[in-house]
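Homework help board

Subject: predicted structure for assignment chain

Our instructor gave us this sequence and asked us to write out the predicted structure in token form, then describe one feature. I got the tokens but I'm not sure how to describe them. Can anyone check?
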Amino acid sequence: MREGNRNEEVIMDDRGGSFVAVRRISQGLERGNTCHSNSAEGVAGSAAWLGRGLSCVCAQIRESDARPSFDLTPSQEALRALWNAAFPKEELRDLISEQWKEMGWQGKDPSTDFRGGGFLSLENLLFFARNFRKSFQDLLWKQEGDRSVWEYPFAVAGVNITCMLIQMLDLEAVKPRTIIGGIFLKFLSENESAFDLLYCITFKLMDHQWLAMRASYMDFNTVMKATRRQLEKELLLEDITRLEDLPSYSLRTR
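My token output:
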């Protein structure tokens, strides 16, 4: 194990296996919220090349491995922080509550919806809510454009965006294997919040595509594919030297 600062570490399988990149938890959350997985099928991929900038992109672990484990389950404090950021004037009565459906979770226990993106999905949503408050609220309440009768669920869409970015940037690889992955690594080396920022840009871009396509609930996967294609196209532009240069960056508002 190689330790970085007190809130960041990179764990490597010395048999040439997988890696785990863990960055410090969001501001305001307890440092004790580390990550562990209790099953071999609970995580996917590796991310040694990240070094920093992502919360929990965890490696495939065999049942026989006697290695440190990392929890992808969002903590109670983090979930409450998300609720307070989204609904500052409404008290959350219980962590398991029908109230969560107001944010676009599938049931009354949001932790079950984080399985695909792990704690990273929650960190992305928190970053979005805290740093681009107006954009976050506009998307949460669907305040822009001519909306469909059957809209996409906000929170679940956010988890899907995290997963899509992990795949698009090839974060499961030990080192970048694609041009897009290499470009993102450069951004990450200059800004440890690069993934969070790209997440916010992507969420706004997805909603922009949704409105342009006059999409409805059943069109969500099609919209996500169109969003990925547009994002990849922008990342490959020659004059892009930082995420703020992306054309879609102008879609977000604070």
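Reply (TA_rk): Your tokens look well-formed. For the description, you could write something like this. The beta strands are 2-3, 9-12, 19-22, 56-57. That's the kind of observation they're looking for.
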